[in-house]
Each structure stands twice: as structure tokens, then as C-alpha cells.
Amino acid sequence: MKLRRLLLAAVLWAQSASGASVRYLSSEAEAFDRRVVAELESVGFVVDQPASEVVELPEDCVAIVRVSGGQVEVWLNGDDGLRLAETMPRDPTLDEDSVRIAERLRGLLAPLAHAPEPHGELPPPPPPIPAPEPKPPPPEPSVPPPVAPPPRPEPPPERDWEAGAGVAAASQPGGLGASAAVWLRRRVVGHAFGELVGHWPLTSSRIERGTARADVDARLLSASASYAWLEEPAWTLRSGIGASFAWVEARGDAPSPRRASDESAVRVLPHACADVAFRLTPAIGLAGGVMLGYAPAKLDIAFGSDVVGTWGRPLLIGFAGVSFFP
Fold first, then answer.
1. Whose CB has fewer CB within 10 Å in the chain, the N or C terminal residue?
2. How many domains are contained in the chain?
3. Pair (105, 226) in one structural domain
4. What backbone phi and psi angles, to 5 degrees, belong to 309?
5. Is residue 155 part of a domain?
6. Which pLDDT belongs to residue 128?
7. Segment (H or E) for 137
């Protein structure tokens, strides 16, 4: 549509503009310049394109078109000399800018084509054509709001007290001795605990030499301070140190003429301990652990002058049971 309108205007105006010249000044040799010059020549103007701006104007020059950066300046040549008639912005990204500017130039310069002399009084220029409004920026892609992660389940409340019961096996002279174990544990601060553990013998370990034999039992009360290295909602892993008070009893049996006797002794053993617990419910869990102790005071078990074993060097106890969290 624009091309048809431009061709029609060129045919109607070609003769009226014949002979007038327009000086075209541009520092950019680009397609925009070539198109505007072609449009001016197509309607009858002689377009003068000197290599320098200081070249004298020809007598028939009615206007100067100067392209500078992002604008086009139109200077009219009248009796009072050159005056700036209009400044038109141009958008290098729009292909139709050359057609728009050529039409505007034709509107400005058409009255000069009918003047008897190129330096006559100039009529007022036509009202300016507003520059095309800039294209609105493309809408930004909508970003969905971030989805908040689901809330983490709250861990079960910390239980300050724990009580438990189970069975234990201790390494003693003559083999393993089974015992019942009970414990009471309390959280002191943070992950630190204090605990008491008691062992009551269920079976005795037996030492035999020929016809002589002895049954060995040990009752223990242990006090420990431990620290929970791992304390999750389901799992707990602790280790600690402490001291154990042991009452050791040996019951002898020998045929005549030997005489059997029962002996007992008390020993204190420093120990190290570790345990692991798995919580089945907030109130009940399974527990198991080990304790390793050593008796500084030697306790020998002898048949007469024949020493058949030494208790508590070392003492290794393993236990398993059920914990309750009141």
C-alpha cells in the first residue's frame, strides 16, 4: 500500500520538481541512504552528494538533507539563508523508515518546486508528522511462584529418662556367665547422659580340675557417663566411661580328703562402654551394647596352691534388652 502511494505521488509530482536540487549529506553509506536518495530522484529532484560539507551550494539548491546518527535534519535554503526546518528521528531497525522520511521530505519541499526562484520567500512548512511510537517490549514470560517444600515432620520430643531390662553374658574364668541386666539412664544436658547398670547372675561359669570344681558368679553395679554421637528420631549411638563395683563369689566342691570352701571378694573396675538403641515407638525401643573393664587388683581363683583362673583381667560383658521411655 505504501509503495503504491509513493509511486502515484512520484508520477504526479515529477514534472513540478524538475530542475530543483537537494543536497544530501550523510557519513554512513548504507541502504537507508540509497533508498532515500532514490525516492528523492524518483520525484524529480537532482540529488547532490558532495564528498565534503564545505562545498559551495549550487544556485538551484532548495534544501539540504543531513543524516546524522539517529536523526535526519532538513535545512531550507531561502532569502535569509539556511534555516533548520525540521529534525526527524529515524529507527534503523524499521525498514519503512526510508519511505516515511521520503514522504515527509516531499511534503516539505513540494512548495519550493512551484516557486519562480529557488531563493524566494518560503511558505511555512507543513505540520510535522509524528515519529512512529516505539514498539512495546515483549511481555516477560510468567514465572510460576516457587512452591514451598512440604513441612518436615517434627522429631519426637526428647525423653530425659530411660529404663530398661535384658540379659547379659560375661567372660569369666571357666566360660560365659549369664546374668539379668537392668539399667536406668537420664539425660544430663544436651547429648550427655548419666546411667546406672546392675547385673545379677542367672548361671555360673564352672572351672574343673580333675575331681575338683568351682562355680564363679559376679554381681556388678556400674556407673557411667556417656555421650550420644548419633541421636536421630529412630536411632541412638552412645559411648562412655565409668567404674564398676563387683562382688565375685567362687563356690568350691572337692571330694574327701580335700576340703571345699566358698570365697568372695569385692573389686572396682574402670570400664568403657558403648550401646546402640532403636526406637520402635515413642515409648518403647530395643537396646544392645558392650562393656569392657579391667580389675587393677588381681583376683585369682585357685585349687589349693594351683591357680586355675584370674577374674576381671579383662571383663567383657555384652547385653541386649528392651528400653522404656516414661
1. N
2. 2
3. no
4. 180, 160
5. no
6. 66
7. none
Question: Beta partners for 21?
Answer: 46, 61
pTM reported for the whole predicted model: 0.50
Q: What is the rounded distance in angstroms from the CA atom of residue 94 to the CA atom of residue 36? A: 14
Q: Examine the domain organization and report whether 178 and 296 are in the same domain.
A: yes
Query: Does residue 135 lie in a domain region?
Result: no
Domain range for 226: 161-324
Kindly tell me if the per-residue pLDDT of 257 is higher than 90. no
- Give 178-198 pLDDT, tens digit per residue: 999 999 999 999 999 999 999
**Among the listed residues 170, 79, 168, 164, the one whose alpha carbon sits nearest the alpha carbon of residue 118:** 79
Both 179 and 281 in a single domain? yes
Instruction: Judge whether residue 132 has pLDDT over 50.
Output: yes
CATH number of the domain bearing residue 41: 3.40.50
* Residue type, position 180, single letter: A
**If we measure between CA atoms, which residue out of 216, 279, 272 comes closest to residue 244?**
272
Residue 118 lies in a domain: no
pLDDT exceeds cutoff 60 at 1:
no
Q: Give buried/exposed letters for 267-280 (b at 16+ CB in 10 A, else e).
A: bebebebebebebe
For residue 311, give the amino acid letter.
W
